[in-house]
Design a protein that fits this description.
heteropentamer; A alpha+beta (568); B mainly alpha (306); C mainly alpha (319); D alpha/beta (320); E alpha/beta (348); C: 319 residues; mainly alpha; MetI-like fold; two-stranded antiparallel ribbon; 1% strand; globular; D: 320 residues; alpha/beta; Rossmann fold; 8-stranded mixed sheet; 4-stranded antiparallel sheet; 14 helices; 42% helix; binds adenosine-5'-triphosphate; binds magnesium ion; ATP binding (chain D); P-loop_NTPase (chain D); transport (chain D); peptide transport (chain D); ATP hydrolysis activity (chain D)
């Protein structure tokens, strides 16, 4: 459907109103004062867990709270490619199937101890040791030689991680079973990008690591700030780490505390925090606040509409050719009938916008710029359905090609304040093309129920609206391959398998080949419409005018080293 | 003890205490005509109830279910939106009318069910005493220790289709205990009276005595307790909705409308979405309470106004 | 009396066992489990499956129940899946918070309710009584969260008189500093809770006074020439406080459960909030422990009521 | 054979205490009493408050569970509920209660109140039933339009008469009247007593007349029993008891009756004090070492008294 | 009796009206009475005749919002009607003691017996706590409580009815008041205990020489204890005199009827006399003419006075209305006429 999509593109883009855009860095020309304290809000419904360790925590809130101290080992460029200049440098050796990590000798933990090879090895051990029950352990990590054995408890050391200069040395070599094209990018999942203070944690048994005070109350980091005070789950105070290897931190104190979503907008309006996230639904009500700048960034994520076409059986996705949704025209029609632009304009003022493909635009070359996705087009939707033999009955609803009553069950999560209205809107849209869509269970599903049903291929789901947030290495294999449990639509075609394999194949070490492979896959996905890309959103932060140097840009070792305030 | 033999009890006026009001209805009527506030409350209550019930017949369901995003947060008075539009551009007034009806329906259903259970348990327990009482009271005790709000939340999470009936059953199941205890106490005090013994010697069987002799005598409690249960259940629905465990969108309720006051900012920006429902709820509960108070006075000869 | 208390406590055991079974089953019926939510591309389904298996979540429910009870018997309520900490530790932390809130709320409730009840009862039928009753009805029928939201907007964000979230300021230091900060954090919610939940106490007190005013022993007191003020305080008021004393246990347990709204809106990390979070996160271990705790607290509250009653009212004996 | 024979009737209420709430003791509300009521007679049962009079009465009509002993009605044991049901016992044995207000259901019309036993024990058409109710009201001297009224619309005496009407509705053989006039003013009391007597004559009803007022009992009963601490202390005819009281308790009761003759009051008072002193000083003579009443001993054909055997022989010799 | 002439209480034209449905109705209607030192004045009458109302009027315990008291109650030159509260509080308990009918409800269930007795000592004497305690024990002893220290520490519900009434008496006499009002002090009690209490009351009266206003509806009690008697009917006194005058020569039809309806020792099997009709309620009370007339309908209207007043028939013996002169019982007349005692049932 290349030609058809191009014809409609002009009309759809004209209906969508002016594109919103945000700077990614605060603008403040005043001179920074020395010291000064800064407050930041963390919007959350629940207290943060307080696991201040990258290896054990998989929680966004915890990462937010520890962002002042926790620093990645490697520096990257804006495309997430590893570059030298961080706490450590990374060198991949394709042939030897190794990665060599070289630690910057200036790097010290906040207790003054130097960062060593042991610290890097220990991070892998924490993740892989079964006693820690870390959820960070993945199949990708098992690509390191000896990792699986260590994880199974069969070995005491990870044979594929070596420290040629000894534990206190500065070099670590990782041996892989296979090299992957994604390894050059941060977030690839094969290489862990944090270190754990071995000298500090070694006395704590793995089993009790997660609940130990050394993790929860007095964690060590080598980033610009160190944790000074903590009220569990609520707030934390960070003060400069005097051993920081980079530029001297400029603030004397950073306080971060939780803010309930329901009061967040009010908090922005009353400028209770220097830095506070903006919930998209509330942006309209706070955008005119004086003395506050809004900076933004588009996160690596997307929301989508998936169609259930099979089941996950014996470790494989098995597509059912007779499934209700296994009709490409039906799926496309459903996609075209969605007035996503209109909805998002209304509900988020354009902060959320329609996306044309399953690879977010931030991935640069991997993103298929020519993809059009499924712009709103009712006529086309009707036509597709007519072609496919879904005939309209007297009641205005279409039957399936066999003439049987057709009811499509949509599973959608609650949570977003507008979710109910949005679901109703789409259901009405689909009604206008003659499709009877009902919500699974008659209501929006709460998070757990939703995933419980989606994961287990519940019979009462025909399609579902989900979202993925991606790591900075965008290989879609984890989400869409034949063996991926996360491939919730259960699509499984030979074409798909071929395309996916190509993305992570040896040939893809050639960047151009990989780019082409990504594009082919995106085209295929839009053609088959098993998964319809829906939206991505700006993630906006309200920053007080007195803050200087705060940025959402990716790459730098740790932005907080540069943040300052210009008035008391 | 000597006090068992005291002269017939008399009230302040020296008249024998008449445990039943002279013909229930007449006393209630008199109570209302003597109490302007109660009368006004009664009228307001009836206006709200009838308004909601009758009004809802004239509201097409599309007015409160169909999303019309172009009318999102429409200001009151615009485009035929008398009380404005909500987040989905649905008509607040229609939602209010139907929501009122639904909430009232929930309230009364719960109240009635609670009364039925409460009366049955209370009668059996208070009248038979002994092991019947023991068993029923232990069951009641057990329900009493269930943290109601918590269980409700869990149950709502569990049920696959959450609707008005589930809500009604759930509130009832977790709310009948105090009513049962109330009736039990009342039955106990009635069962001590000699008319029960007289009925026994007249050959009436236990069920006859319970339901035809004792029950009418505790029926004054029914009116009072019903109004209380009513107000409580509407409150529970509202609270659950606020916590995110409300009825599905196709079933508007007071709680859903009030929950538009989900955060201070939208509260200030879109007052038309939640304020009318909140005021309605307050006015309704207030009038129900006043009516209940008056009924209570009617039931209690000591407090009667005249 | 001690014997009775002991017997009552022993009688609680079967109730608690049934309660635990009940909530355990409910918990197991909830769709999903603590690991359902762990789906990011950073995690592997296989690792999650492994963790799930290790946590025993694939066992039949009765196996899980028995092992849960066995551990609970030794005071080990397991780990919170969500917080990765021992449940007892989390609840202990939250319980302290809730306790602070509950105690101050109770104090404020009584500080408001007792004079109101006394005035309403004493000046029964006058405008004072009418206004107090009106206020009571209003406070009973106003949805609490609306009031909390308005108050937090006005006094928290607007006037900035009170903090808007948390239980203690992170910058507070020193024993008294921390206590002061804690109190500062709960003043607004407790005042609101106090204002909104005193209705039943006021009504109890009022009707107690109204009833007792007519009692014969009040006449006796007057006939002794006791001044009216003393008659009121010593005879009418004291006897009317009785049901309130008896109600005390219930008020406490009621507040513990009823603070959910205040805790949610003031993002105050108390037990009510914890419960909601644990349901949403399918944090079974926390959820079941909490419900159990509430059940036990309710039982203890009832017992406390009875004990108080038997102390203040010589006619009631528990022996 | 007497109409009713009470044989060694015991009614004990358990007292629970201790850790397991076990029965640790009993209230001996009725503790081994015997008496017979003949057809058509009024038998008096007198005693102070709490002596077990009501309990005895209730046991006879079947409202109280008997711990042990027998109640024979026409020679048939009726202590068992099924037995009573089978022979429609309550058709023949009815009760009048002390508190007229509480014994009439305030929510029921007089018609329904009086008709209740008729409906339960007899099958009548509605008109028959109504005629019967009117007839009964007529018997107790109340206008027939009373049937539409509620109990509170009547005075205490009228209510008590309604109670009498209900009791006689099924032509009972025995009516247990538990302090039927204690709550009434003097003039009203007279009305009720008159009716009771009149009905007795008319239908040959037996009464068990329970009271603590010796004046009233004397007016009503030929035979009477004095009850104290759950036991009978003295049984006899009116003459036996009033003219020749033997037990100190009977004497106390008699001495305590206020006389309407002011001139003799100083003497009465002196007598009263003397009896009281004797009662206080010689407890051991009248009660056994546990303070229990002795078993009844016959001193004449009609007169029995609860005294130690040696006392009895002495009295017998005096009487004889 | 040795009624010394010292006048304690002089009630003149006392009216006490209650508000019912916005109208005031006299429950006590123009009553004049005197009480002397050492006198036991008995007030008899059926339920609802206004006895308690009179008593509470004397001690000023009516709720002023719905009660209107007019007339004079003179005590030591002091008019108790309309007396200010502070002053009245000095009199209550100290100069007038009161004993109520139901001692259980008249005692505060939450206070120890000792405290309740001591309470009036606090406000009327200068005794310190020790002395008060001693006085309480002494009082308990005086009213015949076997173990005063124990009882002082008990609560009302732990005592028997007779004991409670003794405690009430102890409260009433705590300050040795010259006037004691006893409102049906024995109605709730057993005959034997009633006798004890009445004897006790008499003894105490002798000891402290008070005047007692004894309210009762039991003629026997009156005959046993009173010096003078006032018979009340419908808020009025219908007959008044010394106990001998009233019992030996009852004049008013009501007094005579009452005496006649008592079961008499020597009239065992006879029918008892019944007074027709019922006591009228406060609102329905007939307020003109002879209020008792409706209950003796066989008496011709001419025999009643239009405005019945009290007539002093002999010194100290007063009777209302002239109808007493011609009053007869219908059966007496019949009996006289027919010569047979047989008579029909008197309707209601
Ligand atoms: N259900 C019961 N449980 C325990 N004790 C009881 C019960 N009913 C009666 N008693 C006790 O039994 C005794 C006899 O009571 P009963 O009512 O027969 O006395 P009575 O002679 O009728 O007294 P009264 O003159 O006050 O009516 C009393 O001591 C009473 O306390
Ligand atoms: N507070 C009141 N308000 C209205 N009417 C009252 C009040 N108190 C008493 N009465 C009426 O006044 C009349 C006299 O009552 P009172 O109590 O003095 O009678 P009593 O002779 O003491 O009767 P009893 O023997 O029953 O105690 C009665 O008709 C009664 O109904
Ligand atoms: Mg009795
Ligand atoms: Mg009285």
């Amino acid at each position: 459907g290349n030609s058809s999509s191009s014809s409609s593109s002009s009309s759809s883009s004209s209906t969508s109103t002016k594109k919103l855009s945000f700077p990614d860095t605060v603008k403040n020309d005043k001179t920074a004062i020395s010291g000064g304290s800064l407050t930041m809000g963390l919007i959350t419904d629940t207290p943060f867990k307080g696991i201040f360790n990258e290896e054990l925590s998989d929680d966004n809130n915890d990462s937010t709270v520890m962002q002042f101290g926790s620093e990645s080992l490697f520096k990257t460029d804006s495309d997430y490619k590893f570059v030298d200049g961080g706490a450590a440098n990374l060198k991949l050796d394709q042939k030897a199937k190794t990665a060599t990590i070289t630690i910057n000798p200036n790097v010290k933990w906040s207790d003054g101890q130097p960062l060593t090879a042991d610290d890097i090895v220990y991070a892998y051990k924490i993740i892989a040791n079964p006693a820690t029950k870390s959820s960070r352990y993945t199949d990708s990590l098992a690509n390191i030689v000896g990792m699986a054995e260590y994880n199974a408890g069969k070995a005491n050391e990870i044979s594929g991680i070596q420290t040629p200069d000894g534990g206190t040395g500065k070099t670590v070599i990782l041996h892989f079973k296979q090299m992957k094209p994604g390894m050059i990018k941060s977030g690839n999942g094969y290489i862990w990008e944090s270190a754990a203070p071995y000298h500090y944690l070694k006395d704590v048994p793995f089993k009790s690591l997660v609940s130990s005070d050394k993790i929860r109350k007095t964690p060590l980091f080598f980033g610009p700030y160190q944790l000074s005070k903590l009220v569990a789950g609520q707030s934390a105070v960070w003060v400069p780490n005097k051993y920081y290897y980079g530029a001297k931190p400029k603030l004397s104190k950073i306080t971060i505390s939780t803010v309930t979503p329901s009061t967040a907008a009010q908090a922005i309006k009353s400028k209770s925090y220097d830095i506070l996230g903006v919930q998209n639904a509330q942006y309209a009500s706070v955008k005119n606040t004086k003395g506050v700048q809004f900076i933004g960034q588009i996160p690596l994520s997307y929301s989508y509409l998936g169609f259930k076409v099979g089941k996950f059986e014996k470790g494989k996705n098995v597509e059912d050719p007779n499934a209700k949704m296994n009709n490409v025209k039906l799926r496309q029609a459903i996609a075209y009938a969605m007035n996503i632009d209109q909805v998002q304009q209304k509900f988020t003022g354009g902060l959320t916008f329609r996306i044309p493909t399953l690879i977010p635009a931030q991935f640069g070359d991997y993103f298929d710029k020519s993809a059009k996705g499924f712009p709103y087009n009712i006529a086309k939707a009707n036509k597709l359905l007519d072609e496919a033999g879904y005939k309209k009955g007297k009641d205005g609803y279409r039957t399936d090609p066999k003439g049987k009553k057709l009811t499509i069950h949509l599973a959608m999560m609650s949570g977003n304040v507008n979710a109910a209205a949005i679901s109703k809107n789409y259901i009405q849209q689909w009604k206008s093309i003659g499709l009877r869509v009902e919500l699974t269970s008659g209501k929006l599903l709460e998070f757990n129920s939703f995933y419980d049903k989606v994961q287990n291929d519940s019979k009462d789901i025909d399609m579902f609206m989900g979202a993925w947030s991606l790591s900075s290495e965008p290989s879609p294999n984890d989400l869409y391959s034949a063996g991926a449990p996360f491939n919730f639509t259960r699509m499984n075609t030979t074409e798909q398998s071929k395309l996916l394999a190509d993305i992570d194949s040896a040939a893809s070490f050639n960047e151009q080949h990989r780019i082409a492979a990504f594009k082919k896959w995106q085209e295929y996905m839009n053609k088959e419409a098993y998964v319809v890309p829906m939206t991505n959103s700006w993630s906006v932060t309200a920053v007080n005018d007195r803050v200087k140097g705060y940025t959402l840009k990716v790459g730098g070792p740790n932005v907080w080293a540069d943040v300052a305030v210009t008035s008391k | 003890m000597a006090d068992t033999k005291k002269k017939q009890q008399t009230d302040a006026k020296g008249n024998p205490i008449v445990s039943a009001p002279p013909s229930g209805l007449r006393v209630i009527l008199r109570e209302f005509t003597h109490d302007k506030a109660a009368m006004a409350a009664f009228i307001i209550m009836m206006v709200i109830i009838l308004g909601a019930v009758i009004g809802s017949f004239f509201v097409p369901s599309s007015r409160y279910t169909d999303v019309n995003i172009l009318q999102q947060w429409a200001k009151p008075g615009t485009n035929g939106y008398l009380l404005g539009g909500d987040d989905g551009g649905r008509d607040v007034l229609s939602s209010l009318i139907v929501g009122m009806r639904n909430s009232i329906a929930i309230g009364w259903c719960v109240a009635i069910l609670i009364e039925i259970i409460g009366i049955t348990v209370g009668l059996l327990s208070g009248y038979f005493g002994g092991w019947v009482d023991n068993i029923l009271m232990r069951i009641t005790d057990f329900f009493m220790i269930l943290p109601a709000l918590m269980i409700q939340i869990v149950v709502i999470t569990i049920v696959s289709r959450f609707n008005i009936w589930v809500l009604i059953i759930m509130i009832t199941a977790l709310g009948w205990m105090s009513t049962a205890r109330l009736y039990r106490a009342a039955v106990l005090s009635q069962a001590k009276r000699d008319y029960v013994l007289a009925s026994k010697t007249s050959g009436s069987n236990s069920f006859r005595i319970m339901f035809l002799e004792v029950l009418p005598n505790i029926s004054s409690l029914l009116l009072v307790d019903t109004t209380l249960s009513f107000a409580t259940s509407v409150g529970i629905e509202t609270g659950l909705t606020y916590l995110g465990f409300g009825l599905p969108d196709t079933t508007p309720s007071i709680g859903r409308l009030i929950s538009y006051a989900s955060d201070p900012v939208s509260m200030q920006q879109y007052p038309w979405s939640w304020l009318p429902a909140t005021l309605m709820l307050i006015v309704l509960s207030l009038s129900v309470n006043y009516v209940g108070k008056a009924l209570q006075r009617a039931a209690d000869s000591r407090q009667r106004l005249g | 009396m001690w014997k009775t208390i002991l017997r009552r406590v022993i009688l609680m055991i079967p109730q608690i066992i049934i309660l635990s079974l009940f909530i355990f089953l409910l918990a197991k019926m909830m769709p999903g489990d603590p690991f359902t939510g762990l789906i990011t591309p950073n995690t592997s389904p296989s690792q999650i499956a492994k963790l799930r298996q290790e946590a025993g979540l694939n066992n039949p429910w009765y196996v899980q129940y028995v092992s849960w009870v066995g551990r609970a018997f030794h005071g080990d309520f397991g780990m919170s899946y969500a917080m990765q900490r021992p449940v007892t530790e989390i609840i202990g932390e939250r319980a302290v918070n809730t306790l602070y809130l509950a105690i101050l709320s109770v104090i404020i409730t009584y500080v408001i309710a007792i004079p109101f009840g006394v005035w309403a009862g004493r000046y029964e039928g006058t405008w004072i009584d009418t206004s107090i009753q009106f206020y009571n009805f209003i406070s009973m029928s106003t949805p609490s969260f609306v009031v909390y939201l308005l108050a937090i907007a006005a006094f928290g964000f607007g006037l900035k008189w009170f903090p808007t979230s948390g239980s203690v300021s992170v910058s507070a230091s020193g024993f008294f500093g921390i206590i002061a900060s804690r109190i500062y954090h709960i003043i607004l919610p407790s005042i609101l809770i106090g204002i909104l939940t005193n209705a039943s106490t006021v009504q109890y007190l009022r009707s107690g006074i109204v009833d007792n005013k007519l009692e014969d022993y009040v006449k006796t007191a007057r006939s002794k020439g006791v001044p009216e003020r003393v008659v009121f305080n010593r005879h009418i008021l004291r006897n009317s406080l009785l049901p309130i004393a008896a109600f005390f246990g219930n008020v406490i347990t009621g507040l513990l459960g009823g603070a959910i709204f205040a805790e949610t809106i003031f993002s105050y990390p108390g037990m009510g909030k914890l419960f909601i979070d644990s349901v949403n996160g399918r944090d079974y271990s926390v959820m079941t422990a909490l419900v159990l705790l509430y059940g036990i607290l309710t039982l203890l509250g009832n017992l406390l009521s009875d004990i108080i009653m038997s102390i203040v009212d010589p006619r009631i004996r528990i022996d | 054979m007497s109409l009713i024979e009470i044989k060694d009737l015991n009614i004990h209420y358990p007292i629970r205490s201790g850790f397991f709430n076990r029965i640790t003791d009993y209230v001996y509300a009725v503790d081994g009493i015997n008496f017979d009521i003949e057809e058509g007679e009024t038998y008096g049962l007198i005693g102070e408050s709490g002596s077990g009079k009501s309990t005895t009465g209730k046991a006879i009509v079947g409202l109280e569970k008997v711990t042990s002993g027998q109640i024979l009605y026409n020679g048939q044991d009726v202590t068992n509920r099924h037995e009573r049901k089978k022979i429609k016992y309550n058709k023949d044995v009815q009760m009048i209660f002390q508190d007229s207000m509480s014994s009439l259901n305030p929510r029921k019309r007089i018609e329904d109140i009086i008709a209740e036993p008729i409906r339960n024990f007899e099958s009548m058409t509605d008109t028959e039933e109504r005629d019967r109710v009117k007839e009964l009201l007529d018997i107790v001297g109340m206008p027939s339009d009373s049937i539409y009224k509620y109990p509170h619309e009547f005075s205490g005496g009228q209510r008590q008469r309604i109670g009498v009407a209900r009791a006689v509705a099924t032509h009972p053989k025995l009516i247990v009247a538990d302090e039927p006039v204690s709550a009434l003013d003097l003039s009203v009391q007279a009305q009720v007593l008159n009716f009771m007597k009149q009905i007795q004559k008319e239908f040959n009803i037996s009464y068990l007349f329970i009271s603590h007022d010796l004046g009233v009992v004397k007016h009503m009963c030929r035979n009477l029993a004095i009850m104290h601490r759950g036991r009978l202390v003295e049984v006899g005819t009116r003459e036996d008891i009033y003219n020749n009281p033997q037990h100190i308790y009977t004497k106390r009761l008699l001495a305590a009756i206020p006389k309407v003759n002011p001139s003799g009051r100083e003497a009465d008072k002196a007598h009263r004090r003397e009896v009281e002193r004797e009662f206080q000083d010689h407890q051991d003579k009248w009660y056994d070492k546990d303070g229990k009443v002795f078993p009844l001993q016959q001193i004449t054909a009609t007169h029995s008294v609860a005294l130690p055997p040696d006392e009895v022989t002495q009295i017998k010799s005096e009487v004889g | 009796m040795d009624t010394s002439d010292e006048l304690l209480l002089d009630i003149q034209h006392l009216h006490t009206a209650f508000r019912v449905h916005d109208h005031f109705y006299d429950a006590v209607d123009d009553i004049s009475l005197t009480l002397h030192k050492n006198e036991i004045l008995a007030l008899v009458g059926e339920s609802g005749s206004g006895k308690s109302t009179l008593a509470t009027s004397i001690i000023g315990l009516h709720n002023p919002r719905n009660t209107k008291v007019t007339g004079d109650i003179m005590y030591n030159e002091l008019n108790l009607v309309g007396l200010n509260e502070a002053l009245f509080n000095r009199i209550r308990g100290n100069d007038i003691g009161m004993i109520f009918q139901d001692p259980l409800s008249a005692l505060n269930p939450l206070m120890r017996i000792g405290e309740q007795i001591a309470e009036s000592l606090v406000y009327h004497t200068k005794l310190n706590e020790k002395e008060r305690e001693a006085r309480v024990l002494q009082l308990l002893e005086q009213v015949g409580i076997p173990d005063p220290p124990l009882t002082a520490h008990q609560y009302p519900h732990e005592l028997s009815g007779g004991m409670r009434q003794r405690v009430m008496i102890a409260i009433a006499i705590a300050c040795k008041p010259p006037i004691i009002i006893a409102d049906e002090p024995t109605t709730a009690l057993d005959v034997t205990i009633q006798a004890q209490i009445l004897d006790l009351l008499e003894d105490i009266q002798k000891e402290i020489g008070s005047g007692i206003l004894l309210i009762t509806h039991d003629l026997g009690v009156v005959a046993e204890t009173a010096d003078t008697v006032a018979v009340m009917y419908s808020g009025q006194i219908v007959e008044q005199g010394s106990v001998y005058q009233v019992f030996e020569h009852p004049l008013h039809p009501y007094t005579r009827s009452l005496l006649r309806s008592m079961p008499q020792a020597d009239s065992d099997d006879e029918e008892l006399h019944v007074i027709q009709g019922t006591v009228p309620s406060l609102v329905n009370m007939q307020r003109t003419g002879d209020r008792f007339a409706p209950r003796i309908p066989w008496m011709p209207a001419s025999s009643h006075e239009e405005h019945p007043v009290l007539h002093e028939v002999e010194p100290g013996h007063l009777v209302r209305c002239t109808c007493y002169k011609t009053f007869y019982f219908p059966d007496e007349k019949e009996a006289a006429a027919a010569g047979a005692p047989q008579n029909a049932n008197e309707g209601e």
